[in-house]
Amino acid sequence: MLSPNPLSLLCALLLCLPLAIFFTTDTTHTATTTPIMFHIPMPLPRNISIQENPNKNLTSLSPLLSSLNIQDDKPHKVTTRVKGRPIKPNQKQLSTLLLSSLPSPLRQNPDDALFKAAMRVKSKPTRPKKVAFMFLTTKPLPFAPLWESYFNQTPTSKNLFNIYVHADPSFSYHAPFSGVFSNRVISSQSTRRFSPTLSAAARRLLAHALVDDMSNSVFVLISPSCIPLHSLKFTYHVLLRQGKSFVEILANEETAYDRWAARGPHAMLPEVRLEEFRVGSQFWALTRRHARLVVSDRVLWSKFDAPCVRFDSCYPEENYFPTLLSMWDPQGCVPATLTHVNWTGRVDGHPRTYEAWEVGPELIRRMREDRPRYGDGNSDGRSDPFLFARKFAPDALQPLMRIANGVIFRD
């Protein structure tokens, strides 16, 4: 075999040169984009303290990009193509490109400043600890007089709670919020079923309650059709002595796949796999640490905030909170709701509504004797009492008021 001499090697290089030029020229037309990673901690460290004044008006907007921690290993080469030619966008075009590529909850919106403040509050409440009652409604509260009596049972009861109301601004409120509900309506946005807006409203309530009072220790979501089943003092001690959140967390439900795939068969991946997806009640009681986790979340929320393509199985308000807490801190949760509801014979997505003629001491007694369904099917010896109940028709107010002091508030 002949050994290659310098002349033969030179000839071989000259023969390969056109091919190398061809491939080099072809690759210059390929746009290259270095992915941008948005590092948003979830949850935030516990030792972060709030810097903003919690009593100021949180209506100013903070620049979105400056609030994100964007880290890169090397400079970005963001290019695009116009009529086959690669071009480099200017700074304004680049900002527009970055913003348009973000999921909707990461774009700048009126809640940005509020959530930025809420995610920096301390996770340990100050004393005296309070319960934040958060009413999510689209109409005047039909049982406001009953709740008024509930909150005013004793002169010292005002040291035990705070009230927050998320009232859909697209509805007319002919009867204003008065009494204990005066000046307790937060900055709200429209809500509707089969969309993320109900979950967004609950997150907005949590953010307001976290920033408003550092004493808020437990955060309870209340429906306008909901009533208390015990006195405020009884409710307060049940919620505060546990040190855990009460959120229904159900695995292996028949409707789990349809709900998981409501935004598309792969829309939840890779953040939420089907085996991690959970179903539960819309109404829960969260500890301050978990409330702070919810308002700090951007990763899972970007998935649940996406619009659904199947509306018959789109219930993010019943899936987001159970899934988030199940994935991040299942040991910190009691997998049950403390709001009694009757689904017997219901197939339309609404629980049974109790009419005025059904209201009496016997109904309250039966609801008190019932016990929650625990998500794993094993209560581990727990026997937690229901503290609230729904749904009641508006005309049930008068019979409820007649038994309030003698039955409902008597423990």
TrEMBL record:
Recorded superkingdom: Eukaryota
GO molecular function: glycosyltransferase activity
Keyword Glycosyltransferase carried by entry: yes
Position of the signal peptide: 1-22
InterPro entries assigned to the protein according to its UniProt record, in alphabetical order: BC10-like, Glyco_trans_14
Pfam families given in the database record: Branch (PF02485)
Annotated membrane topology: Single-pass type II membrane protein
Alphabetical keyword list: Glycoprotein, Glycosyltransferase, Membrane, Signal, Transferase
A single cellular component GO annotation: membrane
Location in the cell: Membrane
Principal location class: membrane
Protein name (record): Glycosyltransferase BC10
